[in-house]
Write a structure and sequence with these properties.
alpha/beta; five-stranded mixed sheet; 13 helices; 33% helix
């Protein structure tokens, strides 16, 4: 038999390379190929290069995928391996999610303490995940969090050096790196995982029928089904990288159960819910998203102004309320929106929902204001404008 020679693109981190080797070995076993039939091509992404800024501030999850997408569409590679939780919700039409490996442990692990309750009062937790920040602050409002970027070894070293009291990592990644005993697993009833956590996906060009056929042989149908439902929830919420959203779909026979939680950045506002449907019911995620948003609005208050609930602001996933003390328009930390006149998370006006920018955004805004003042250029319309919608990525 003549073995096909093709190139499998991946990020260059230790975990990404382990996952790429998992895919290569699974493909080789499924088709009776030798491992050298598949060349692993490491590609350095912007997310790997930039380690000192939160991803949400510099482009979101596209920073993990855009270089791989470019290589795939240009023919430099034939397929690409991803951690599915790092893949944007809306993908290019020319790229297809062709297969997923069986899902691993979806839980988070706490590194540096025996439990969340055991952390000292005011403990500092290193994490770059808005979801984990919100969940931890909801459980323990006294905890402080700091930005923590880098691969698994980097983060473990920072904890060991005492840079923070503790950190959190995905159990699946630790297991794949041969570290099943590192950290303490947190039950999903305490911390529901990120959508698609623990899943490895493989993408190919949508027009490459031969590659799609090869990859279909290793697709785990249950994982694929559940992850697509979780991603559909993100799409229905129009969630962006600032939005702390947790979700987990599980399959039992012909039934899918979807659980989800929405948070304010500091955990002070929260709703949770679940829904079940038959496998293949395309309305499941949208129904749960609408229910969560409606209950959040009833519980914490919402915007009654028409242009905030049914117009451009809602469709863009942005809030354009004026902050009373400054008159400056700001975007809520939670920004999903529902079309058709329903209130968006970005338009909920409660004191418990923090209207906040990061320090970096505030500094950038101040620099732009000074530049306009020096140039004698007025603001457009006399007010600050926030363009673009945060509707592309997941978490």
């Amino acid at each position: 038999m003549t073995h096909p020679q093709f190139r499998l693109g991946t990020r260059g981190s230790p975990l990404a390379l382990v996952q790429a080797n998992m895919v290569r070995d699974t493909l080789a076993r499924a088709h009776g190929w030798t491992a050298d039939a598949i060349e692993i091509v490491p590609i350095k992404t912007t997310g790997d290069r930039v380690q000192n800024v939160a991803l949400a501030e510099i482009g979101g999850k596209a920073l993990w995928t855009k270089e791989l997408d470019r290589a795939l569409l240009s023919g430099e590679i034939d397929c690409a391996v991803h951690s599915m939780k790092d893949v944007e919700t809306i993908r290019p039409a020319d790229i297809a999610i062709a297969a997923m490996l069986p899902r691993a442990d979806v839980r988070d692990r706490l590194i540096g303490a025996e439990s969340i309750a055991a952390l000292r009062r005011g403990a500092v937790i290193g994490t770059s995940s808005p979801r984990r920040v919100a969940q931890l602050r909801r459980i323990r409002p006294d905890l402080a969090t700091v930005l923590f970027r880098g691969n698994v070894d980097t983060r473990l070293a920072k904890v060991a050096a005492g840079a923070v009291d503790a950190s959190m990592l995905a159990a699946a990644g630790l297991d794949r790196l041969g570290r099943p005993d590192v950290g303490v697993a947190i039950a999903i009833d305490i911390m529901l995982p990120a959508p698609a956590q623990g899943a490895v996906g493989i993408e190919a060009r949508a027009s490459d029928t031969r590659m799609l056929g090869w990859l279909a042989a290793i697709d785990d149908a249950a994982t694929h089904c559940c992850v697509l439902v979780e991603r559909a929830l993100l799409a229905a919420l129009q969630a962006d990288c600032h939005s702390p959203v947790a979700a987990l779909a599980t399959r039992d026979g012909d039934t899918i159960r979807l659980r989800a939680e929405l948070f304010a950045e500091d955990g002070s506002a929260h709703v949770s819910g679940e829904a079940c449907a038959a496998v293949g019911d395309a309305t499941l995620a949208a129904r749960l998203a609408a229910d969560l948003l409606a209950r959040l609005r009833r519980r914490y208050g919402g915007c009654s102004r028409r242009d905030h609930t049914g117009g451009v602001a809602a469709r863009a996933g942005q809030c354009r309320h004026r902050r009373p003390r400054t008159g400056r328009r700001v975007r809520n930390t939670i920004t999903p929106a529902v079309r058709g006149g329903r209130a968006s998370l970005g338009c909920l006006r409660s004191h418990t929902l923090r209207f906040a920018h990061s320090d970096q955004r505030q500094r950038a805004s101040a620099r732009r204001a000074r530049a306009r003042s020096a140039a004698g250029t007025p603001r457009a319309g006399g007010r600050a404008a926030y363009g673009g919608g945060g509707t592309r990525g997941g978490f």
